[in-house]
TrEMBL record:
Keywords: Arsenical resistance, Cell membrane, Membrane, Transmembrane, Transmembrane helix, Transport
Lineage: superkingdom: Eukaryota
Designated name of the protein: Arsenical-resistance protein Acr3
GO molecular function: antimonite transmembrane transporter activity; antiporter activity; arsenite transmembrane transporter activity
Database matches in InterPro entries: Arsenical-R_Acr3, BilAc:Na_symport/Acr3, Na+/solute_symporter_sf
Subcellular location: Cell membrane
Gene3D superfamilies for the chain: 1.20.1530.20
Naturally occurring in which organism (per UniProt): Colletotrichum liriopes
Protein family per UniProt: Belongs to the arsenical resistance-3 (ACR3) (TC 2.A.59) family.
Membrane topology: Multi-pass membrane protein
A Pfam family matched in the record: SBF
Residue ranges of the TM segments: 22-49, 55-77, 84-108, 120-142, 163-182, 194-216, 223-250, 256-277
One GO term of the biological process aspect: response to arsenic-containing substance
GO CC field: plasma membrane
Amino acid sequence: MYPILCKVQYEKLHDVFRTREIWIQLGFSVIINWVIAPFFMLALSWAFLPDKEGLRNGLILVGIARCIAMVLIWTSLARGDGDYCAILVAVNSFLQIVLFAPVALLFIRVIGQDNSISSISYSTVASAVGVFLGIPLGAAILTRLSLIYTIGTKIYNARVIPFLAPWSLIGLLYTIIVLFASQGSQVVHQIVSVVRVAAPLVVYFSVIFSATLLVARKLGFRYGLACTQAFTAASNNFELAIAIAVAAYGPDSDEALATTVGPLIEVPVLLGLVYFVKWFARRYGWED
């Protein structure tokens, strides 16, 4: 997440937030990302996994974790608005630090009535979010502002960003390899559980993306903004979800297995949606 977060123009956020259009876009994004999408995943987890509490909890964690890394890649591939996407990444990063723990407890312990000893706790979730999201975010802000002050924005964008950019994808691939290496036996021996988790994920990604895209188009958003909104809504921060599942329930838990299935489904589905949205824009003359 660190290389991605280093791209966000934190020094210009105070100017960006002065425009009315950005507040409209942010309001739309917050409603989709922090109200509709998490509750939709909550409903899907109960509909598909009413008898599997562990897998259900893992799926709920995935739904709460809003994407702040891969969404920039999907947006770039689909020719969305990269600058606006970076703003959403910054906003969702801060909101996630504040909201993830209380929303997770609301969904799992209050609505889900999970009061077992091994159930998730506020301190565990808050500390995991602080470590796995707070540290990269703080380091990225410090890196960007200090280097821009010392070497200037032009050199920073020309040399530092190109150096850091590949490490995001390398880190993502490394994370996926390590996760599947550690969870490989569980995936093989619990293939039925994997399929049961995969089904609601496919529904979630497809429905949230399509609904957000169509509503944004109906509201008159240009293609770049609508595309960015759709990918932000459909993508999830599975790295954070996995980290919290492992920290709260253990690496061999059903919760960890469910969160590990996330990237296995998200990557091919969202890649397919990249091609779909570009075809859709050409078909209906909606390109910027």
